[in-house]
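sorry for the late reply, my laptop died twice this morning and i had to redo everyting from scratch. anyway the thing you sent over, i finally got around to it. pasting the sequence first so we're on the same page, its 358 residues, then the predicted structure underneath. double check i copied it right bc i was rushing
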Amino acid sequence: MNRQRLHQQADKIEYVLATHKAPAKVTGGRVTPRTIQFHVSPSATTKVSKLENLSEEIALALNAPAARISRANGQINIEIPREDVQPLRLLELVQQVQKDAAMAQALSIAGTTLLGMAADGMPLLLRVSAPDVAHVLIAGTTGSGKSQAARTMLASLMLFQRARDVQIIIVDPKASEFRVFEHISHLLCPIIKNVEDALANLEWLVEEMTRRQQQLITRPRIVLLIDELADLLMQGGDEAEDYLTRLAQRGRSAGISVIACTQKPTAAVLGSLVKANFPVRLVGKVTSANEALVASGVAQSGAEKLAGRGDFLLIANGEKIRVQIAQLLPGEYDAFRARVSGGQSRSIQAPRAAYDWT
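ok and here's the structure:
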């Protein structure tokens, strides 16, 4: 990134703020693969609320499609999309974290995933096996990168953890987003592509959950990934909602986690199922502030102003963490499969007892 251009943009920001009687100084910034972030220190007489209302004026001055203004760690950040967007590649990030012994050790713990890179430039991990996580909702409109986020989570599990420690069930109605995982030993059953098979497997998983609870079994961890949750709920009706509610409410104690994706984060579609049982949200760009509220569970999250294409907010315990999701690109599928050990998937028609490993 051209340093001279960054200084010019910083000067323009300061000029716009001064012109609108909200003087502030750009003190530094950070360039990520998709965004440019300027750190701004307002003067003692500048009201933060006034500065936050100048996003359109700043975007116009910088010739940017949008400018996002947020507060974090005692400073104000002004962020614009990069003109030369660079992908954050998962396999490259994996090589980076493997050089850090502590991080590699953390990723070997069952249920820990590598999401991407936080706004501070550090790799961001999420442990779905943690007591305050268990289930994750991934929401975002078309083009936000929600399916990519789910692929990254699953790929990370497969790269760092053995099939005997983590087993995965994938419900993919579009039959395309998760094809890369076919024939990988972590799959407890073949990828599920229709509602009838999804309901049968959900019924089995509820029974398995009950058996595990009775016998105090929590390993291996089972991760259920559902793409297009809203479609499954609409087509599967009350039966699907009942199974999912029971899994979301009680699966934690049985070592079962649900990761669900939806591009329709509305209260009418998701209802109380999501609100009560998904403590962690991974929210990409949505179409409105109302959808942002439903998807994130917190007011004024700003998800409707995200850049899309892997630009996400991780919402946990009421806190927001900006993250750029790492991408597993189609051209890297063969390299990914070569890195995942374990051989071929078992030939099974339906899930069997997940503890049955030697």
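Confidence is low (pLDDT under 50) at residues 342-358.
thats about all i looked at so far, will dig more tmrw
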